Amino acid sequence: MRAADLAVKDVSWAPGKSGQPVLHSTSFTVAAGGVLGVLGPNGAGKSTLLRLLYRFQPPQTGSIHVGGHNIWSLSARAAARRIAAVLQEQTPSFGLTVLEIVRLGRTPHRAAFSSSSRKDEQIIDRVLDRLSLRPLAHRDVGTLSGGERQRVMVARALAQEPQVLVLDEPTNHLDIRHQLEIVSLIRGLNMTIVVSLHDLNMADGICDEVLVLKDGYPQGFGPPNTVLTDYLVSKTFRVDAQRERLTPSGAAHFSFALPN
């Protein structure tokens, strides 16, 4: 399934009917195949926004469209063919192996009670190889390290073949090598990606656009090199931020200090 555009218009969310909004009216679009980074300090509303995108909870206002389809007008199975998520919270493995967890990604594409098809197994094989999980295929997921488990969750999402992939801090728990592998993977995927990040330098390197949140309010949206100014980063994260360009690569590097 090919990547699809993501259109979010005026979405907001608050706990209960009269609770204080956690996310205020937010709008943005991501072109098919684009990578959007969602940035902000703890409590900014990043995880709330992601929950709306992967259909964990409906927005109280506004709409979310993937490829022109309102995700809340689709069945749960149809939505799962379009959107997959990799979360920070890793659920118990219940004794399942890596292979069995990755196979779960094919569930939205199968009829009820049917077994894996040859196509399913081919997709699973490719994903295992792509994330270097073949040697771990028959290991109980509960015996893996945090980084290995994270790679398994990414593999399960890729096996789902979504049009939009939502990643919540995907490099958490990963060592430097596997962080680089995930970054390289994100750049090479043929799908629209929304990724929550704390690392501004990583966001500058892999994202086509960024959305910056603070206290549930959007602070800026657009290409990283225009949105991530010293002023906006300093104001949003309550630090003194300075952005420099590294030569000869031209990559951006932020340095931070506590304000006087």
TrEMBL record:
Pfam families: ABC_tran (PF00005). Keywords: ATP-binding, Nucleotide-binding. Coiled coil: none annotated. One of its GO terms (molecular function) is ATP binding. Residues 6-240 form the ABC transporter domain. InterPro entries: AAA+_ATPase, ABC_transporter-like_ATP-bd, ABC_transporter-like_CS, P-loop_NTPase. Signal peptide: none annotated. It comes from the Bacteria. CDD domains: ABC_Iron-Siderophores_B12_Hemin (cd03214). This is ABC transporter ATP-binding protein. It comes from Sulfitobacter faviae.
